[in-house]
Amino acid sequence: MADEQKWVYDFAEGSKDMRELLGGKGANVAEMTRVLGADRVPAGFTITTEACVAYMQAGQEEPDGMAAQVADALERLQEHTGKRLGDDDDPLLVSVRSGARESMPGMLDTVLNLGMNDTSVEGLAKATDNERFAWDSYRRFVQMFGNVSRGIDGEAFEQAIAEVKSDRGVEEDTELDTDALKELTDRFKALYSEHTGEDFPQDPQEQLRLAIRAVFDSWTGDRAREYRRINRIPDDWGTAVNVQQMVFGNKGDTSGSGVAFSRDEVTGAPEPSGDFLPNAQGEDVVSGARTPRDIAEMKDWLPDAYEQLMEILKTLEQHYGDMQDTEFTVEDGQLYMLQTRDAKRPAQAAVRFARDAVDEGLLDREQALMTVDADMLTALLVETFDPKADYEVIATGVPAAPGGAKGEVVFTAADAVSAADEGRAVVLVRPDTNANDVAGFHAAKGILTSLGGKASHAALVARGMGVPCVTAASELKISLEDKCIRVGDRTIGEGDFIAINGTNGEVTLDDVPLVDPKEDPAFDEILKAFETVLGWADDTRRLGVRTNADTPTDARKARELGAEGIGLCRTEHMFMAEDRQPKMRRMIMAGTREARKDALEQLLPLQQEDFEGLFEAMKGLPVTIRLLDPPLHEFLPDLPDLAAQVERARIECTDDLEELEELLETTERISEENPMLGTRGCRLGILYPEIYEMQVHAILRAAKAMDEPPHPEIMIPLVDYEHEIELMRELVVRIGNDEGLHEGEDYTVGTMIELPRACFVADRIAKFADFFSFGTNDLTQTALGFSRDDVESKFVPVYMEQKIIDRSPFETIDKPGVGWLVRLAAWVGREARPDLKLGICGEHGGDPDSIEFFHMAGLDYVSCSPFRVPIARVAAAQAAIIHAHDRSWADA
Ligand code: ADP
Ligand code: MG
Ligand code: MG
């Protein structure tokens, strides 16, 4: 027996650091027992998550030794409490509570009042001198046990309750008298037999065994699986089971139960918040059957218990160093704590708490920064539902991208685009989305899907763009064919009004007022706290934070949000504008160098203006400008269309036939099978140097036109071979000399690292580059051989389900693969050139996990979209805090 695995821990043996083994609930109940004392927390024991895993692996068999260890722990519990399960005098009752590593609200099962049977109900009545209470406890147990352990539909029990209430002419559950509760218990037992073909189990040991199994089984139930899939919780964690002595909130008017937060969980204001119900047990408070009362009212009801609770909330907050979310029960005026955990909180409460905690001396700045979920901070920059608004929720999904959005329902990206052109506000509603829908994301106020989850295409793209998004709203049945949404007995059609709250996942048909945090005085305090927290982040981080911006508007916005320069300006975006497209097309289609130069001549002043705008917006800060890396096909006419036009012109012998034929011929010549891997980046600069020459002229002339000299960094895209960058650098320097400017002083030249080969030969490339900027979008595509637009909605979700990957590599950098290439290039690049400046400008630059990696890889800065700048500032600070004591590879 000596080396038998330990499956069971008494609460007295556990601690908060054991959550992987004991689950969050078990670990924290153990911790509370130590911190608050054994008379505040009912005693009990925890069966480990490892036992659950072993049980699942063995095909629903309890592992060897578990039963005996449970029996021993139960014996100790009976000794400790002086009561015995099933006793006919003063019986012990226990709860059997699930508790995974991470909380999965409502997904796993809990059974209360275990140990009730025909004998112990009499014992309980005698011991408490409260017959009604004893029978109320018994009927609750039969109900929960039947539901959890044997899958009997909860509706069936509720139905019986409703019948008995109407028979007796009462409205509330609490008005049912002892006789009524006896009748209910009988009815429930009958339901149980009907459903299972067995009598309700009377042996408490048997009840316990079945309840533990039921909690284990709930881990693999459909509900829990689905929840894990959309919230990215691994299936193989398993749940722990907590067996705990019952305390009773349903014993009468000086008993009750409730939930309490150590601070307001919505606003972060320093007053505790919560709800309670007198004479209630367990889930009554959250079930909605009775309307709970505000925690402040508890003061009048039971002033002593209230004071104790307030004191305990403070103690727990101090102890955990974080805002707490607790569950409590009062039995005959005596307060018991049943659960505590770090409170989930929206961005506003997160920054408010962080700032206040430092002011109050609860945390130091670094600790406070670590309590903020950086990824959520965009919520403070977008419009949100008015927190005071009342509205009817028709469905709840996953809060995939924060903010509130409302407008008319549209079902296709094309409809979203045309509605937006007409100035109408729309919400794009689809079962799920793919690359073809992305234009609709720009046009819509918000995105709503019935499928997917936190990591689906819709969620990733919306988060990246700052568009509010709700995914996995599975109550909605969306028919693209009929262009309607069905939910319950309602049908919502195209053009109907809808509103979504991407901050909490709610969907409503009510016209909820939206508030802009910047303009609403209610947010003053929060925005002040936000500024303070960002200031601390800036003092803490080592990584610089820049932005990806192509327009002065974006640049100014990013600068307001704290960007320290532009890490990527994509010049091809400057040619997408309506008035420039034709000029750009003429340039691309030009048959001769002369014709091309002519077209470029017309583009030059426009480019120069663009750069002047950017330099102005980024006065005093570096601006990295990438020379043209065009997806050429985007500027070409549609080939099949054009072919059809030519065909028609031939038949009708129209005047423009010759012109059309020429156009077709050129288009066919330039068109590529695979434009992604075709004449892109510096390949274009080598084939048609006049294009880059024009751009460099435009950049440097813009620089010369400024009062205060800017810091242009000219970036050569898609370099594979050192000779490519060598040639392109010569070109830039030649134009620089023409313009009378000096490389290294007036401007610098570097390259975007976005091909695996470039990473391998980074030392050779570094000889010709002042800086590297990792283009991790393309680097991910080329290293993995994934075409982003094709894979994100097609197989990435399946890959995640099958556990081939746990994140989309376009969301979080693939550390062992693509990340290794980054490290390698940074390392050998710096070996060749110690002063090489290193940045990253892919979308990963705004992802907190990736930012931590880039910090470790020794990069100098990250660059991300404007409204992710605050996220990056905080995430960079957190990386610096987490790795403060690591030895950086650069020193090694
Ligand atoms: P969940 O994870 O769904 O919150 P819990 O295990 O926390 O489930 O149980 C739900 C509720 O049941 C608790 O909030 C508490 O009110 C009640 N409960 C659980 N265990 C006990 C107990 N030992 N004594 C009294 N009430 C309990
Ligand atoms: Mg629950
Ligand atoms: Mg709970």
From TrEMBL:
List positions binding Mg(2+): 754, 778
Q: Which residues form a coiled coil?
A: 643-670
Q: What positions does the entry give for substrate binding?
A: 570, 626, 754, 775-778
- The top EC class is transferase
Record-annotated active site: 457 (tele-phosphohistidine intermediate), 841 (proton donor)
Tell me which family the UniProt entry assigns to this protein.
Answer: Belongs to the PEP-utilizing enzyme family.
Q: What is its EC number?
A: 2.7.9.1
Q: Which organism's genome codes for this protein? A: Solirubrobacter pauli
Question: In what residue span(s) does the PEP-utilising enzyme mobile domain sit?
Answer: 426-505
What catalytic activity is recorded?
A: pyruvate + phosphate + ATP = phosphoenolpyruvate + AMP + diphosphate + H(+)
Which parts of the sequence belong to the PEP-utilising enzyme C-terminal domain? Answer: 529-879
What cofactors does the UniProt entry give for this protein? Answer: Mg(2+)
Gene Ontology terms for molecular function: ATP binding; kinase activity; metal ion binding; pyruvate, phosphate dikinase activity
| InterPro entries named among the record's database cross-references | ATP_grasp_subdomain_1, PEP-util_enz_mobile_dom, PEP_util_C, PEP_util_CS, Phosphohistidine_dom_sf, PPDK_AMP/ATP-bd, Pyruvate_phosphate_dikinase, Pyrv/PenolPyrv_kinase-like_dom
All residue ranges annotated as the Pyruvate phosphate dikinase AMP/ATP-binding domain in the record: 66-295, 306-352
Return the PROSITE patterns for the record.
Answer: PEP_ENZYMES_2 (PS00742)
Q: Does the keyword rRNA-binding apply?
A: no
Q: What is this protein called?
A: Pyruvate, phosphate dikinase
